[in-house]
Specification:
The chain is mainly alpha-helical. The protein has seven helices and no strands.
């Protein structure tokens, strides 16, 4: 199968489309954005108060539906939840299966995110040419310590503990399972491109 390519995203973390219910709740705006009108926790552009932060930051795996709904109210996250899935990303997912994707998600978090003090925090998860795991990270605000602290209440200055790692992985897996509902549990051998 040929690789399907998508146009690079033309949005940044702080973009909004408030009339269509797509906001920005973050604490820091990307370089070049105007000063926000409203404080963190509500939409920085229109002031809409749409997220129960106490509920989201409980990190309850039984309440992931609420967290996913809240994430989808943010323009940047919404884009990743609804961006078309390329053939290449689907093939990668099928080759890994649910078990392999869970291992890959956990490994990415451990190697790129879990330790505090990364001088590249906010840049370690690609937007351009993002792989499937990076799609899941952006969609679920598990892409950097700043987003994890803001959305999930895990302090940047501390290591992510095993319980928190399991929660973040569960959240990423919800993205993958919702976007690719036909995923097999185990890897599916891929035929060569002869």
């Amino acid at each position: 199968m040929s690789k399907t390519t998508l146009e690079p995203l033309k949005l940044s973390c702080g973009d909004t489309d408030c009339p269509h219910g797509l906001h920005y709740f973050g604490v820091r705006l990307p370089r070049g954005h105007k000063k926000p009108k409203y404080p963190p926790g509500v939409c920085r552009e229109c002031g809409a108060d749409l997220v129960d932060w106490t509920r989201v930051q409980r990190r309850d795996s039984a309440d992931l539906t609420y967290t996913i709904d809240a994430l989808n109210r943010e323009y940047f996250r919404h884009e990743w939840w609804h961006r078309p899935m390329t053939d290449h990303l689907r093939e990668f997912a099928m080759a890994k299966g649910v078990e392999g994707l869970r291992e890959a998600a956990t490994a990415r978090l451990i190697t790129k995110i879990c330790k505090p003090g990364n001088k590249w925090d906010g840049q370690q998860t690609s937007i351009k040419n993002a792989d499937l795991i990076e799609h899941a990270q952006h969609a679920t605000a598990t892409c950097c310590r700043r987003c994890i602290e803001y959305w999930h209440g895990i302090k940047r200055e501390s290591d992510v503990n095993p319980e928190e790692l399991t929660y973040l992985t569960d959240l990423m897996m919800q993205y993958l399972l919702r976007r690719l509902p036909d995923l097999p549990q185990r890897p599916v051998p891929q035929q060569g491109n002869d």
